[in-house]
């Protein structure tokens, strides 16, 4: 009985805390929600504005430059297949959600990773936090996001950004820690300030590791963006959720194929960018 009461009291405390936060900072959360949706709508418009064939050609060229001719051909054929299945808009909406989420993630994750890589105490704290974020089931992040921001695109971006946060922090921190001390000491010997050492020595050396973190964040963001279709995020996740509710197996399969195509293209292009930077660093 005591255990049940303790659990009930804890649940009530959490609910009251979330309710207090959402009411007290309602105006601030509305501003944040509007800002997030503004960025997302802008990126969606950027992806959907050009004719689909021109954007496919652009993405094919990008894939060619980063991942080779084979990936360029796959990109063109894959995205044309998404258009042929009448899922072009949904694919671009999902890609915009992923890109927006990763942008917000990196704005916080990279500076935090740099600090963690330079400070042992901060690294110890962030390691525990990243372990917590990575072991928590992704669906759990939807609940406080909905409670605070309501249904729609903004809670989807927030929850997706949180899911994609950990690998960017971890790999940025790892890259900073792997910078040879001799490189930094040479820079300091030539009069480099701490800021110059960071931007001209540490970050360039750590860039391949940072980009690997970006790659991992993209993949996690895509998986979460599909889940976020449950709360009205739109895109392919919404199509999967709608098809499951009405048992349209064909539509669900089409949306699933589009998700796989998008995941492979984003992964290969970002991984190709990592390899290019690694070669340039060597």
- Supply the number of structural domains: 1
Q: Average pLDDT across residues?
A: 81
Looking at CATH, the homologous superfamily is MetI-like
In percent, how helical is the residue content? Answer: over 70%
Query: How many β strands by DSSP?
Result: 0
Structural class: mainly alpha
Under the CATH scheme, the architecture is Orthogonal Bundle
| Main CATH class | Mainly Alpha
Q: Report the major sheet.
A: none
How many DSSP helices? 13
CATH fold name, please?
MetI-like fold
Topology at a glance:
Elements: H1 2-24, H2 26-48, H3 52-67, H4 69-84, H5 88-118, H6 120-135, H7 138-149, H8 153-163, H9 165-177, H10 181-189, H11 194-227, H12 236-245, H13 249-281
Helix pairs in contact: 1-7, 2-5, 2-8, 3-4, 3-13, 4-13, 5-6, 5-8, 5-9, 5-11, 6-9, 7-8, 8-11, 9-11, 10-11, 11-13, 12-13
């Amino acid at each position: 009985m005591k255990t049940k009461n303790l659990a009930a009291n804890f649940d009530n405390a959490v609910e009251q805390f979330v309710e207090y936060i959402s009411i007290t900072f309602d105006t601030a959360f509305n501003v944040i929600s509007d800002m997030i949706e503004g960025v997302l709508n802008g990126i969606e418009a950027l992806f959907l504005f050009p004719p689909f064939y021109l954007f496919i050609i652009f993405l094919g060229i990008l894939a060619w430059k980063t991942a080779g001719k084979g990936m360029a051909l796959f990109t063109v054929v894959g995205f044309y297949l998404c258009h042929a299945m009448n899922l072009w808009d949904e694919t671009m909406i999902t890609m915009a959600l992923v890109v927006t989420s990763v942008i917000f993630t990196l704005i916080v994750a990279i500076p935090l990773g740099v600090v963690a890589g330079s400070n042992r105490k901060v690294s110890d704290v962030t390691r525990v936090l990243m372990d917590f974020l990575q072991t928590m089931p992704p669906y759990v992040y939807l609940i406080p996001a909905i409670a605070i921001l309501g249904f729609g695109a903004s809670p989807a971006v927030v929850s997706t950004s949180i899911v994609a946060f950990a690998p960017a922090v971890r790999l940025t921190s790892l890259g900073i820690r792997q910078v040879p001390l001799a490189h930094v000491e040479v820079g300091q010997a030539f009069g480099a300030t701490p800021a110059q050492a960071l931007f001209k020595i540490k970050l360039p050396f750590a860039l391949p590791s940072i980009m690997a973190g970006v790659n991992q964040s993209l993949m996690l963001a895509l998986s979460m963006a599909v889940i976020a279709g449950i709360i009205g995020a739109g895109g392919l996740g919404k199509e999967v959720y709608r098809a499951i509710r009405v048992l349209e197996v064909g539509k669900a399969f089409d949306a699933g194929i589009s998700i796989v195509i998008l995941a492979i293209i984003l992964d290969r292009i970002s991984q190709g960018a990592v390899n290019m930077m690694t070669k340039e660093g060597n």
